[in-house]
Amino acid sequence: MKRFFPLLVFCLAIVIALSNMQTAQAQRSPLVLAFYYDWFDENTWSPSKVPDLPSPLYVSRDPSAMARQIQQARGAGIDAFVISWWGAGNPTDDNFKVMLGQASAANFRLAVDFELTSPFYNSKDDVIRSLKNLLANNAQHPAYLRVDGKPVVFFWREQQYSVDEWRAIRDQVDPNRQSIWIAEGVKEQLPYLSVFDGFHLYSIAWAPDVATELQKWSPRVKAYGADKTWVATVMPGADNGKSSQSEKVIRDRRGGDFYRETWRAAFSTYPDWIIITSWNEWVEGTMIEPSVSYGNLYLDITRNFAAQFHAGLPTPTPTPTKTLKPTATATLTPTAPLSITTYLTGTGVLATISETLRVRAAPNTDSEILGRLRQGMTVTLLARTEDWQWWLIPYPNPSQNAWIFSGFVNPEGDLSSLPILDGNPTPTPTPTMTPTLEPTSTPTQTSTPVPDTATPTLTATPTTPPTRTPAPMFSFPSLKDIFPFLP
What we know:
By secondary structure, the chain is α/β, with parallel strands linked by helices. It folds into two domains: 27-311, TIM Barrel (Alpha-Beta Barrel); 349-421, SH3 type barrels, CATH 2.30.30. The chain contains ten helices and 22 strands. It has helices at 5-27, 63-75, 91-105, 124-136, 163-173, 210-214, 217-222, 257-267, 297-311, 479-482; strands at 31-36, 80-85, 109-115, 146-147, 150-156, 180-184, 198-200, 229-234, 238-239, 250-251, 273-276, 322-332, 349-353, 357-360, 369-373, 378-381, 383-385, 390-394, 401-405, 409-411, 420-421, 431-439. The strands form five sheets. It has an eight-stranded parallel beta barrel with strand order 1-2-3-5-6-7-8-11, surrounded by four helices. Strands 15-14-19-18-17-21 form a six-stranded mixed β-sheet, with no helix packed on it. Helix 2 crosses helix 3 (91-105).
């Protein structure tokens, strides 16, 4: 027995270490974050500039206002603010440093949303210097958000540089990958996950059906690696109607119901983290902090859903299946949906391009790029794909068609009349069996995106997260299981 004793001690150490790892993972709550802006002053709070007013009014440089907001966020179950940052040597950095001190005193965390559109970045070298400065200074503060010991950095408009350029930037700034970088964007920005560690959508207010849209994203992100972080977005609504922004986005809050629906939609994707857009983006009307119109309503809603998320979402259940029992009679199905090669003409629906956008030969990012459309240009939408991801437009002239991605397009009319193109060649009718369905269980009802009218005020079908029995905890094996030769 003595000769086996060292081996016994070693194996017991492994078992204990595995148990501690399991316990640590079980105790690590998923993160609830909120985008935060620290550039408001006395001139901000005008009814002509913002759709609502904070209660009370404040200026971002006031430490007491920072302390109050941190306590409100902690009370609502928010773990950290993600603060827009324009680099060192400007008010966003000054206020961020003051807020780090307030957060440290309150056991709260802050992270940076690194804005590539900062007016203080004139070149790629400026970006590299700023990132190095961030990781060497602010990110070393005890109140800076860290996950697994690594500081977290969100990015805004990282698509200003190519994937290869970002790889070179990160090799200079973070060669050993000792920080966590979260990219943002739409489907065309997913390839950035070959350099970045996670992905989020800043806004989800544009989606006709938030649940249907968000459920596409977790598999897209995880396709780049199981370790990639999927950050699901929740929003109370949106209203930038009083801003100078050319693209107007208005999503009715419906007394808090839209916010609740986005939380349920986020839950249905089983995200790693959830981020709220936003704590205080007053100009775009996405704020949840206390206001004159809504009081503490959105903090109360946040508290309820954040507690559910921190407690751990139930494990998803398998989707119920159906048993098909075909009849003996075969019939012809003569329908033939439009194909992507179909040329369409007509008045269509006018739309405005919100960002520089590629025009492609087919509705996917692998197809040939035919040209680019500039921000502010007007196009005519002739048709769409079934998933609402691509629009068909006349291009490069009225006698030809091409495709553009829907994420950077602002329609200005009724979309319900647009035909749906299935993305496949027009099929030839073939004999099919007429089945009789005998469901083995009640099928799950899913929602289908429905286009709205000219204003972007849309509604979404609530989605309740599926229930599931939690996975069993780790249990210690017996010594007999480890060493079957023991008496």
